Amino acid sequence: QVQLRESGGGSVQAGGSMRLSCVASGPYVSIGWFRQAPAREREAVAVVTKKGKLEYGHFVEGRFTISKDSVRNTVDLQMNALRPEDTAMYYCGAAEWDYRLNFRGYKYWGQGTQVTVTP
Questions:
Q1: Please, what is the Cα angle at 60 between 58 and 66, to 5 degrees?
Q2: Among candidates 9, 7, 15, 8, which has minimal Cα distance to 118?
Q3: What are phi and psi of 40, to 5 degrees?
Q4: d(Cα 86, Cα 65) in Å, to the nearest integer?
Q5: What are phi and psi for residue 3, nearest 5 degrees?
Q6: pLDDT per residue as tens, the chain (119 positions)
Q7: Are the CB atoms for 3 and 25 separated by under 8 Å?
Q8: d(Cα 98, Cα 8) in Å, to the nearest integer?
Q9: Residue 75 burial (10 A CB sphere; 0-12, 13-18, 19+)
Q10: Dist CA 112 CA 36 (whole Å)
Q11: Where are the alpha helices (DSSP H) in the chain?
């Protein structure tokens, strides 16, 4: 059983930065950050794959950085140059297989943290 706990989030003006952190416990293969805006499907923001490769959603465009600390069991998402369209609930997700950016394969989820970017 994997447990995930997110922190960070809140409200920021467009162009600003925000850092999200996820503490993970339990066995997993891949882990990452995902987001879901109202009336939209959940999508992958950034993941760390089984081989430690960092993969990003197409919309990131170099603005976000995911990092994993295996000692502290944390996965952080540094978000810069935030846009109003980045507004969503952000979730930490973990999978028992290397699903990479395919959110449907992720079985474990945190409670989510809201990120709001104002114009």
A1: 115
A2: 15
A3: -125, 155
A4: 14
A5: -120, 135
A6: 899 999 999 999 999 999 999 999 989 999 999 999 999 999 999 999 988 899 999 999 999 999 999 999 999 999 999 999 999 999 999 999 999 999 999 999 999 999 999 99
A7: yes
A8: 26
A9: buried
A10: 10
A11: none
